[in-house]
Amino acid sequence: MSTEPRVLIFDDIEWVDESKNPNAPKELIEKAKELGAGRKHVARGEGGFWCQYTTMPAGYHVPPHSHDQNELLIVVSGGCEVWPSGADGPSMELGAKDSVILAANHEYSFTCGPDGMEFFVLRPGDAAASFNQS
Is 39-125 assigned to CATH 2.60.120.10? Predict the structure, then answer.
């Protein structure tokens, strides 16, 4: 592992082409693209960090899903209503600077608030998503 710092300039990081993600429902990807949602892989294992930045429009709903890695979701701006215990559990409001820690394989969903939401997700490894198809 290199001991040299690695500077990551946000504007130099490409937006992810979500159409290449075989795990996400096609309808969800098409709707996200249509509404202007986007994601950047900030770190892809450098220094042991996996980090992504995501922006989503107002009212955008991410259906119940889970990831195979633990994650820390940190809201930068805007906010959401999150169902951290799955679709049937109680919801919580998250705003700017709030965060939630979710264990691997724990199902959750969220809906962005009236200002949309920008957030970072940090994980200990590259994560795959599983969407509840029921």
Answer: yes
- Other beta carbons less than 10 A from residue 101's beta carbon: 12
Q: Is 52 helix (H, G, I), strand (E, B) or coil?
A: strand
At 42, is the secondary structure helix, strand, or coil?
A: strand
According to DSSP, the residues that pair with 22 across neighbouring strands are none
Share of the chain above pLDDT 70, in %: 92
DSSP string, 55-71: EE-TT-EEEEEEESS-E
Tokens of 11: 């504007």
Nearest in space to 94 (alpha carbons), one of 69, 120, 70: 120
pTM of the model: 0.84
Cα distance between residue 37 and residue 41, in whole Å: 14
What's the one-letter identity of residue 40?
K
Residue 68 CA to residue 130 CA, distance in Å, equals: 8
Mean pLDDT of 74-89: 85
CB atoms within 10 A of CB 37: 20
SS3 content of the chain, % helix, strand, coil (to 5): 15, 45, 40
